[in-house]
Give the backbone structure.
Amino acid sequence: MRYDIVIVGAGIVGLATAYQVQKRHPGKRLLVIEKERGPAIHQSGHNSGVIHSGIYYTPGSLKARFAKQAGISMPAFCEEHGVRYDVCGKVVVAVEAQELPRLDKLQARAAENQIPVRRLSGEELREREPHAAGIAALEVPTAGIADYPGVCRKMVQLIELNGGEVRWNCRVQQVKIGSEVAQLITPSGPIETTLFVTCGGLQSDLLTAMAGVAPPARIIPFRGEYYTLKPDARRLVNHLIYPLPNPAFPFLGVHFTRMINGEIHAGPNAVLAFKREGYHRTDFSMTEMCKVLGYAGFRKMAKAHWREGMHEQYRSFSRHAFLKTLQRLIPEITDADIEPAPAGVRAMAVKPDGSMIDDFLISEGRFSMHVCNAPSPAATASIEIGEYVAERVAEKM
């Protein structure tokens, strides 16, 4: 059977893309294929579950635009379809006086992105988060949490209900581009399609290259490790507590997140994973590591950020060092209050010059489109990314 559109990848971005393509093209034959046994197995099921507000992102960027819109669309989707969510808000905290200029800049960035925030004094911060340290903070009321695996499961149901097809355990092994159609070679046989869209996350550059399109960057996997607060210690965190981000390091820093199931996660750090899907310290692939270390872009990035990288690596192996970072935001936390939680792996798109792509990025081929970079806040903005891709699919068709 020949399909009109095939979506490769059943994480939240791939499923949201399929969902939006169906809405725009209800009569088209659509297929979603996924190499795993079900949806949201990787990044979509291993993130903090936060509905991001968009205060951090460059004004006018896709991240800024989509995150702002997603503050409405993601809660609306969850409300309509009975998926758990909570727009609980968050605080971004300045602990020391020398951080106040950065808090000022973040407040100005929020104003540029038209994200409502409220400046809090130390006393006002403790009214909201009684156990948090800080001399000032920004309260961001539009931030929240959601059950993103639940969103994915619901999207699978909607796609199938509307006549689409979803296949699990279906890995793309090869792509053949013909004169009129593309052929995706899988273990269960070839799939012919007029157009296909890859939303491969940690495999996005490999899928892009397989389709004959030069990927603009190489995916470097970074493992984010978490601790969780034991039940008796959950009283220390009411909602979401973030530090001010380090402008020299492309991660938000260790923060506290109340999950949709009531757990409190603390983290993540950011260390190089020795395998693309390496969720444990012992996960290792010699082939993948040789490719990472042999990539000039990674070496240049490591040279620029080696101090921060060494600190993150030390914190990975030192529970005490991780605890000290947590205590900077909540001094009352003790070693007896925390226990390890499952880690996640982030796909970081690194260009040959060592710089990291800081926005969502989509490339096109003759019969294909490729989501080459979809880092945080991709889960938050997945419906907007899907709509954006669906518009470009309409143009290609």
In short: The mean pLDDT is 95. The radius of gyration is 21 Å. The CA atoms of residues 94 and 136 lie 5 Å apart.
